Amino acid sequence: MPDSDPKAEGVSGSDFFDHADVFAKYFESRPSAASPVETMEMPAVWDAIGDVTGLRILDLGCGGGEIGFELLRRGAKAYVGVDGSAAMVERAVGQLDRSRASVTRANLATYMPPIGAFDLVVSLRVLHYVENLADVLGRARRALVPGGRLIYTHEHPVITSFEAREPGATRTSWTVDHYFQPGARRVIFLGRPVVKYHRTMEEHLDAVRDADLRFARLRECPPVRALFQDDVAEYERRRRIPLFVLIEAHNSN
Hints:
Layout: H1 13-16, H2 20-26, H3 36-49, E1 56-60, H4 66-73, E2 78-83, H5 86-95, E3 101-105, E4 118-123, H6 133-143, E5 144-155, H7 157-160, E6 183-189, E7 192-198, H8 201-210, E8 214-219, H9 232-238, E9 244-250
Parallel strand pairs: 1-2, 1-4, 2-3, 4-5
Antiparallel strand pairs: 5-9, 6-7, 8-9
Helix pairs in contact: 6-8
């Protein structure tokens, strides 16, 4: 499996973004219509999150703190970001209001959040770097108050199954292969190898159940036409294949 060999070497997600070249490429500016994060994932995320006024929020894999900044701007009471990358933590600390926000460097595979301290837990495009999804979700549930919500996004299983990206080129075809073979995939992302974990949609829902969460909704983040402005061709290209899955679950305990 080219670029998807589970036995091949690759950097773990928690260390990946501390490479200076990766960090720089990740934050390169580009038109919003060229970013599926802005035109597909984030519209679904904000719709699912809804009103955050007065909420205490935990962000697992906070990156540079961009969503934390926006959550606070929208009225969140408190925000805690956690990330395994020292560079990301430094960036997040530099742009967040320290009177309402804190950022911790920790590996999500072992991080233990305080019990019952949050109304909402979010995790965006991070959990595909984590091997044991149910374990992380279980600790997230314990961090929630009764009735609290968890919202996470993950690369879609049709993407994590097989990496068909052509380096430096716009992808025009996708391959789904080894779909029912869960586990590690070595992929090339931002010019470097990194290990991501493939899991089927069924395994996502099993992980939610095993974490003792109550499943609420699954979304596949279709592209939003208005965000592409006059770029009809790019909009039509993005309609061809799902890139993200968003799952919302509640702590019913």
